[in-house]
Amino acid sequence: MSNYLLVDFGSTFTKLCAVDIDNEKIIGTSAHYTTVLEDISIGYHNALNLLYDKLGKKIEFEQVIACSSAAGGLKMAAIGLVEELTVEAAKRVCLGAGAKVDLVFSHHLTRSDIKKIKEDNIDIILLSGGADGGNRENVIYNAQLLGEAGVDIPIIYAGNKSAEDNIIDIFDKYHLDGYICDNVMPKINKLNPKCARNKIRELFLKKIIEAKGIKKIESDIDKVILPTPNAVLQAAELLSEGYLEEKGLGDLVLVDIGGATTDLYSMCFATNRSDVVLHGLEEPYAKRTVEGDLGMRYSAPGIVKSLSQREIEFINREKKIDIIKEVNERYQNVHKLPHDERDAFIDQFLAEMCAYRAMHRHVGKIHEVMTPMGKVFNQTGKDLTNVSYLIGTGGVIINSLNQKDILRQMTNILNDSSQLRPEHPEYLVDQQYILAPMGLLSQTHPKLALKLMKENLKELR
């Protein structure tokens, strides 16, 4: 019998999924608090003992493979020239690689920007700017400033190809830990993520894992191969597209509401309509956005900050709660679990707000314009109106008694015709936390990973 143990070292929980490869089935899952601040192996072994208890015996694993978002995950700074172009392209590359973009800068960096990069413990800097043959001055200026400041963070240059020689000279002159990749936006509005994304993953495996405390568990696992969000992205892409004769589910949207962020993934093309004019940067089929100010614990205060005073007063009156007090309690006690119906009610409400606002930022917008040639529809972002499935994961959704109500917040509940939200999706929930593990399994057994996802995601009626 060939068993694989797939491990997700999450920011809050370490989750295990045991798979019997020969018999093509999930044989058990378990979870325990991540203990990265003390020793990450403590939480791992506690989760493993829970798994053995469920199985009623200890079993051997042929492979133990992990992904990680522990200790804040992979934290990146994205630097570009124009906010809507190279900055946005750099952000999308970072997010698609499974990173969290903590800092974003456009145009010339300042000394205070450099100070912030150093203070925020950024893991990798992605330096971009200018289409090929376009502006060179800005990226050279920014690289020079990073060099003069003696920044000792890995820097990936993925900007104007015409400036590469100058950037290499600056990397050498200041002994920077620099890497050269293809331009993330070689032509205006044309996204080119592959080279930079692969380099981010390579640096994550070589350098970042050790800094995140994973080294302490090296003897217990065979390898860490992905940041957790990248594992989920690969699982979602496989689930959508299918593999060989095993069909996928088609266009879908996935939301992961966690303690620190709300991640949203959409698997579909920008539009299937012939009567719209697309504007802005090219949209990837597999797109991930991360809302670092929308989360159930670490980022709970961000939910309140997104509200006006009138909205806060309205919520307090209608829900009969003090939302600021409730949010602060969760922020100060990130391991807090609902103990009664009132706690569950408030977590449910906060999750619904995270889902609604995250979709508002992710989804495409459309506007009708009358021209001398007749009516024209201008679209920015992705059209999600016809996606077939809306999938939820993350503790608050998995443990909710009203899972569908959270996911429904992502549809067009307000009948706003300018937002291209899903209209009539079917609802699924990742009830056993298997999406990240299946992203790991897909690296060696894609057909089996797809089959297990289709069998184990729970349908909501």
Describe this structure in words.
There is one protein chain. With 461 residues, this protein is an alpha/beta fold. The protein has three domains: 3-70 and 211-221, Nucleotidyltransferase, domain 5; 75-204, Succinyl-CoA synthetase domains (Rossmann fold), CATH 3.40.50.261; 233-459, no CATH class. The chain has 15 helices and 19 strands. It has helices at 40-55, 83-96, 111-119, 137-148, 164-173, 194-211, 228-241, 300-305, 309-319, 323-332, 341-362, 395-398, 403-408, 435-441, 446-456; strands at residues 3-9, 13-20, 25-33, 63-68, 75-79, 100-105, 124-127, 155-157, 178-180, 223-227, 252-257, 262-267, 276-279, 286-291, 365-371, 374-380, 389-393, 426-429, 458-460. It comes from Hujiaoplasma nucleasis. It holds the Pfam family MutL. This is MutL protein.
Strand content: 15-25%
Give unreliable regions as ranges.
none
- Helical segment count: 15
Rg calc: 22 Å
Pfam family, one: MutL
Protein name: MutL protein
List keywords for this structure.
alpha/beta; globular; MutL; Rossmann fold; 461 residues; MutL protein
